[in-house]
């Protein structure tokens, strides 16, 4: 390899490395902005003003997608005798305490009041007004055992264990009147909209594709010997011996 080609390859490598690093950083920056948009969109769902429970979900209504993680207001009276417990609902090894609340609509909504380290926990009685986050029934759960514990809140599986009709979702309480002594269960973060920050995600993918293209072109140029100017110059400088020899023979042939 000639000194000229070596210097050229070193310069190309430096330029390509700078471009790739810059494009990877720009892609990471855009992806971080996309992640922030997703987080803000998820938080905005929980920051909505609460509405009455029956405005978000009727007692005989299938759970609407627009009501997922909807803040609601629940008023009614506790059905303390039908309280049950969900093992490790928040992933902290504690039991979530779920107590049905009978509403004016004549159906009961399951309210996760808080958590406890052991069961049973004292069951409340009387009227209550509470605010919380409405969630749909979970997909899988075991039936209530003899201690009225389970591993999830699946409304269809719980119906047979209650005397009253149940709403098709449950509420994770955030505040209540009268106040509840149980520590609150952490509300799960809702899924953000797919479109939140989608432009930033596309920009990130674009910058990463550009970085890949730079790497490809760098590899292509360094492996292409036809792009070596020294090789081209040496080829042009070599005389055409066959042509010169033919020109030398022509006069002799013509004189004969």
Question: Your description of this structure?
Answer:
With 256 residues, the protein is of the alpha/beta class. The protein has 6 helices and 8 strands. The protein has helices at residues 3-46, 53-56, 155-158, 198-223, 229-237, 241-255, and strands spanning 51-52, 70-78, 84-87, 95-102, 108-116, 127-136, 149-150, 166-177. It has a 5-stranded mixed barrel with strand order 2-4-5-8-6. The two termini are 51 Å apart. The mean pLDDT is 87.
Basic shape: elongated
Oligomer: single chain
DSSP summary, beta strand count: 8
Cα Rg: 37 Å
Could you give the order of strands across the largest sheet?
A: 2-4-5-8-6
Largest sheet: 5 strands, mixed, barrel
For the terminal residues, how far apart are their CA atoms?
51 Å
How many helices? The count is 6
The fraction of residues in strands falls at 15-25%
Helix content: 25-40%
Q: Runs with pLDDT <50, length 5+? A: none
| Element pattern in H and E | HEHEEEEEEHEHHH
Q: Given the helix and strand composition, which structural class is it?
A: alpha/beta
Q: Output mean pLDDT.
A: 87
Would you kindly provide a brief summary of this structure?
By secondary structure, the protein is α/β, with parallel strands linked by helices. The chain has helices spanning 3-46, 53-56, 155-158, 198-223, 229-237, 241-255; strands at 51-52, 70-78, 84-87, 95-102, 108-116, 127-136, 149-150, 166-177.
Write the layout of secondary structure elements.
Blueprint lengths: L2 H44 L4 E2 H4 L13 E9 L5 E4 L7 E8 L5 E9 L10 E10 L12 E2 L4 H4 L7 E12 L20 H26 L5 H9 L3 H15 L1
Parallel strand pairs: 1-2, 3-7, 5-8
Antiparallel strand pairs: 2-4, 2-6, 3-4, 4-5, 6-8
Helix pairs in contact: 1-4
């Amino acid at each position: 390899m000639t000194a000229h080609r070596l210097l050229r390859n070193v310069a190309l490598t430096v330029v390509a490395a700078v471009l790739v690093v810059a494009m990877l950083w720009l892609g990471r920056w855009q992806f971080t902005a996309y992640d922030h948009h997703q987080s803000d969109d998820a938080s905005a769902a929980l920051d909505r003003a609460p509405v009455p429970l029956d405005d978000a979900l009727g007692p005989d209504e299938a759970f609407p997608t627009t009501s997922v993680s909807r803040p609601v207001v629940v008023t009614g009276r506790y059905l303390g005798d039908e309280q049950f417990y969900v093992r490790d609902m928040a992933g902290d090894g504690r039991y979530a305490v779920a107590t049905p609340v009978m509403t004016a609509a004549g159906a009961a909504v399951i309210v996760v009041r808080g958590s406890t380290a052991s069961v049973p926990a004292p069951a409340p009685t009387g009227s209550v007004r509470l605010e919380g986050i409405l969630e749909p029934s979970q997909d899988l759960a075991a039936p209530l055992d003899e201690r009225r514990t389970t591993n999830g809140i699946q409304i269809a599986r719980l119906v047979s264990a209650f005397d009253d009709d149940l709403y098709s979702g449950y509420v994770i309480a955030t505040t209540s009147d009268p106040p509840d002594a149980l520590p609150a269960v952490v509300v799960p973060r809702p899924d953000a909209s797919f479109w939140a920050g989608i432009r930033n995600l596309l920009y990130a993918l674009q910058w990463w594709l550009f970085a890949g293209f730079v790497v490809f072109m760098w590899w292509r140029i360094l492996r292409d010997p036809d792009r070596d100017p020294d090789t081209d110059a040496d080829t042009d400088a070599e005389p055409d011996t066959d042509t010169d020899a033919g020109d030398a023979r022509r006069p002799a042939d013509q004189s004969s």
